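TA notes, week 10

Several of you asked for a full example with nothing omitted. So below is the full record: structure tokens for the whole chain, then the designed sequence directly under it. When grading your own attempts, check the secondary structure regions first.
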């Protein structure tokens, strides 16, 4: 048996901003003996075929197993395989029976648990808490293949299956629930998911650095619960060291209670306090977001009962060579053969797309990307992207010459960064582009334009489309980018996300004013005409976002009608765990600024189902099913003048045949209403 090797431990009492260890600098755990698996095994028979007597690590996921870098568990599995670990995958196991978690035997080192690419509650329920009957990450799109609060349930079953095996939780669900958080589905503030899952360690954000270090340290005999110096992790301890210097920043107007000396840690209000005090909840949310820059963030601590939850600072970004290698690991680029001919909708959507970067510095308060992937952009090299396009061409079944998307969390933040690295290391701004684009931000699109050109030049590629949302307040700074976009990369329609037209909601979203959209629209239409193409923008808007009044939604509906838009797909605000907009929704306060109890400026929020549906109805003003409720609202708002047949009026005065009012809303028999967009790890927003 070959000698197994570990990794040099990180040192120091807490994480620092010193350069991290290279992601691929470790000696392999099992040097070359086992090679590369065609697919990571999901059964004992596959293990036997690989010559494995056991797995070192078993990954449990709520998604079907698709061996592709858009699926987080495939990335982690292949990365650990590259480090010499034998990795098995339990994809969508039967959560009602612990025996299903024994299918691959007892893992030698640990279980890694995730809900999948989506939070399980977002996956199973709509913004109005209605049960979904489909799941894009399941074979056949079948719903019900994962439990509610999947991380908690899976972790429990792992412990039941094999007592004593460490359990490490991660992924989007664990990441966004790492501290005490408002839960929309129970309408309560819940504890950190680490407490409820009873796991040994939580990994948040992009987890490559952390999971590789954890695996090697556990292989050397270190317990995950004892790993205290690793970035991007959370753990529970009985108490802090006696010499810990902890600052508890107070609300404005309240006295500070901190020890002398520069604080090493920031104390958030305890779970017990934020559970019952919405102002303190908003204050905790503000503190967490102020400590999100990995170059200056300090560890956070939050009391949960008789234990302390300790979060280390966010992980440092991968370098371009590291992220290149992660995306070029030996993925099969296909669903596991066990699914046969069953279609997995999420795979069908992304199989001809390419991820070129991670992260987003937009800071939109409703979005989960920043909280999970961070504000620092991690970009792949042009050469690596071209190699993946060639792999899609040569290895992905059904490829006809069209790359369906080349982007990331946004389409056009590729290689953008702060011009002044010293300023970047000190910055605590929640957004680089709000209320205006920072003067220190390098907004050049030259590298992206060159990347697009190289992608178009790959032999066998006929078209390269952009499906990721374009950040238009950046795009208007580069006429050459808009020109390239309009001439080469739009298939008739381009998604864009102004989200609203009114300044009140936009300020609380941290989105630019509608004037920036108007400027981009003019540039895009001009370049489309110059290219001899008839192309259109498809704008997306959010209903019922915190800070949005009925009057705001009416004004948005009037804007839509004036501009000839009839939205088929609309989104009602969903309070995702840990988002700043969720703190606004729950607390009625604005965590974008320092909070005080004396500040009586409340953030209005549409919470009742009736008002939320009204806001959604304004987005679909053209649907006769919505006319009765809109007539009632317009009369209440004193705008009966908008009821009638005129072009300037919003809804007609009477219902057409076949529509009848029911419960205050018009319904047409058999009609299915519009879909909604939801925030997930791989839903990219502009």
């Amino acid at each position: 048996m070959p000698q197994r090797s570990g990794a040099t431990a990180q040192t120091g009492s807490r994480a620092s901003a010193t350069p991290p260890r290279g992601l691929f600098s470790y000696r392999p755990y099992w040097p070359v003996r086992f090679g590369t698996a065609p697919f990571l095994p999901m059964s004992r028979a596959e293990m036997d075929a690989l010559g494995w007597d056991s797995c070192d690590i078993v990954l449990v996921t709520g998604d079907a197993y698709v061996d592709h870098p858009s699926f987080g568990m495939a990335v982690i599995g292949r990365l650990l395989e590259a480090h010499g670990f034998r990795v098995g995958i339990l994809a969508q196991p039967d959560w009602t029976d612990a025996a299903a978690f024994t299918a691959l035997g007892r893992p030698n080192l640990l279980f890694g648990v995730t809900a999948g690419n989506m939070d399980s509650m977002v996956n199973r329920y709509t913004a109005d808490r209605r049960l979904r009957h489909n799941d894009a990450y399941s074979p056949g799109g079948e719903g019900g293949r994962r439990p509610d609060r999947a991380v908690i349930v899976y972790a429990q079953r792992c412990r039941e299956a094999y007592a004593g095996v460490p359990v490490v939780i991660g992924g989007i669900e664990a990441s966004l629930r790492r501290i005490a958080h408002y839960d929309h589905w129970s309408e309560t503030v819940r504890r950190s998911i680490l407490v409820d899952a009873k796991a040994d360690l939580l990994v948040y954000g992009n987890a490559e650095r952390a999971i590789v270090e954890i695996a090697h340290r556990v292989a050397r005999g270190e317990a995950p619960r004892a790993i205290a110096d690793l970035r991007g992790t959370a753990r529970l301890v009985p108490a802090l060291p006696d010499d810990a210097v902890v600052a508890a920043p107070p609300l404005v107007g309240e006295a500070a209670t901190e020890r002398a000396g520069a604080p090493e840690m920031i104390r958030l209000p305890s779970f017990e306090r934020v559970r019952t005090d919405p102002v303190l909840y908003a204050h905790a949310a503000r503190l967490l977001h102020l400590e999100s820059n990995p170059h200056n963030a300090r560890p956070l601590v939050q009391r949960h009962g008789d234990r302390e939850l300790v979060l280390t600072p966010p992980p440092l970004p991968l370098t371009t060579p590291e992220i290149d290698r992660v995306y070029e690991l030996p993925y099969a680029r296909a669903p596991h053969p066990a699914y046969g001919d069953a279609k997995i909708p999420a795979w069908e959507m992304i199989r001809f797309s390419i991820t070129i970067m991670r992260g987003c510095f937009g800071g939109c308060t409703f979005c989960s990307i920043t909280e999970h992937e961070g504000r620092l952009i991690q970009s792949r090299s042009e050469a690596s992207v071209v190699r993946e396009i060639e792999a899609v061409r040569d290895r992905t079944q059904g490829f006809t010459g069209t790359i369906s998307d080349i982007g990331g969390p946004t389409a056009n933040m590729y290689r953008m960064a702060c011009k002044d690295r010293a300023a970047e290391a000190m910055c605590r701004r929640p957004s680089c582009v709000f209320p205006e684009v920072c003067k220190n931000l390098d907004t050049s699109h030259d590298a992206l334009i060159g990347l697009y050109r190289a992608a178009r030049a790959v032999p066998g590629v006929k078209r390269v489309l952009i499906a990721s949302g374009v950040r238009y307040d950046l795009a208007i700074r580069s006429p050459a980018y808009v020109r390239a976009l309009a001439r080469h990369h739009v298939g008739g329609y381009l998604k864009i996300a102004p989200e609203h037209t009114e300044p009140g909601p936009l300020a609380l979203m941290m989105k630019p004013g509608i004037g920036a959209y108007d400027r981009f629209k003019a540039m895009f239409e001009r370049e489309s005409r110059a290219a001899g193409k008839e192309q259109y923008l498809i704008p997306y808007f959010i209903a019922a976002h915190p800070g949005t009044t009925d009057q705001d939604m009416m004004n948005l509906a009037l804007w839509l009608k004036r501009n000839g838009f009839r939205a088929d797909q609309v989104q009602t605000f969903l309070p995702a765990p840990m988002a700043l907009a969720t703190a606004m929704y729950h607390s009625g306060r604005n965590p974008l600024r320092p909070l005080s109890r004396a500040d009586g400026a409340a953030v209005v929020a549409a919470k009742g189902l009736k008002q939320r549906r009204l806001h959604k109805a304004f987005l679909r003003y053209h649907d006769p099913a919505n006319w009765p409720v809109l007539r009632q609202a317009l009369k209440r708002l004193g705008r009966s003048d908008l009821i009638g047949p005129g072009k300037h009026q919003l809804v007609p005065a009477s219902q057409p045949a076949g529509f009848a009012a029911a419960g205050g809303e018009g319904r047409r028999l058999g009609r299915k209403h519009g879909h909604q967009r939801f925030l997930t790890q791989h839903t990219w927003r502009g």
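Residues 1-16, 662-686 have pLDDT under 50 and may be disordered. Use that as a sanity check on your answer.
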